[in-house]
Specification:
Strand content: 5-15%
Largest sheet: 2 strands, antiparallel
Number of strands: 2
Length: 85
């Protein structure tokens, strides 16, 4: 499990590097990074744009290490972190 979690953490760091400039163009705020998840807050009118940018960054970040493995991410827009399930 350690190699998988470590790779996910490294991919997340790459994703943050990719996502940060995109977030600066929005009102979104990065609230938390937990293992291989990001929690962001954005106004409703920007939520879809921020979600798409976050998904793209996560995919590109993980593809840095997984060249031959397809990368898929899951994301949701919710009122709270509890609503993500």
């Amino acid at each position: 499990n350690t190699p998988v979690q470590g790779l996910a953490g490294d991919g997340l760091k790459q994703a943050l590097r990719i996502l940060w400039p995109e977030l600066k163009q929005t009102s979104a705020k990065l609230l938390a990074v937990v293992h291989d998840e990001m929690v962001l807050e954005a106004p409703e009118n920007e939520a879809s744009k921020v979600l798409q940018a976050t998904e793209n960054a996560m995919i590109k970040g993980l593809e840095t290490y997984l060249e031959k493995v397809p990368v898929k991410v899951e994301s949701v827009i919710a009122e709270s972190w509890a609503g993500k399930a």
